[in-house]
Amino acid sequence: MYSLPPGFELSSKIYGFFEIKIGNLFWLNVNQNLQNSLIKLKFFGENHDGLTLKAKNSDHSFHSEAKYEIKVPLLNFQQYLEDMAKIKLLIVDKKTENQIGHVIINLLLYVKRKFLFFL
Predict the structure, then answer these.
(1) What is the pLDDT of residue 117?
(2) Which long-range contacts (CB under 8 A, 24 or more apart) does 24-31 make?
(3) Would you list the domain boundaries of the chain?
(4) Assign residue 50 a region: left if phi > 0, alpha if psi is -120 to 50, beta otherwise?
(5) What are the tens digits of pLDDT across the range 35-74?
(6) 4, 43 in Cβ contact below 8 A?
(7) What is the DSSP letter of 18?
(8) 111 versus 62: which is more confidently predicted?
(9) Of 14, 51, 54, 57, which alpha carbon lies 20 to 30 A from 90's?
(10) For residue range 70-82, what is the model confidence (pLDDT) as tens digits?
(11) Closest by CA position to 21, among listed 6, 9, 3, 39
């Protein structure tokens, strides 16, 4: 299990979970071989190379899903995602590890701030 945001791994408190699920990968360029492609995921602030995942329609031994423990209160985690704004998934060649494409996810489209006030 992985944790977010980076730097809070030693915290024993878990406030929730954040899951990444990679669906099917389709190439617009028919010369690309799906079986030679891996997906690299790295969050802002991570000190390591990030995770290596695979597309759901690939037969690699890597997983197509990852689950992170959220180690800060949810409003702080939401602020972390807003500050990051976007995450870039690198599509790399399995054999050479050269980047052959990328996907950018705008996190701001998925983060919604709601405040509840109690009197």
Answers:
(1) 47
(2) 24/55, 24/56, 24/57, 25/55, 25/56, 25/57, 25/58, 25/91, 27/101
(3) 25-64+73-109
(4) left
(5) 788 999 988 888 888 899 998 888 778 899 999 999 999 8
(6) yes
(7) E
(8) 62
(9) 14
(10) 999 988 998 999 8
(11) 39
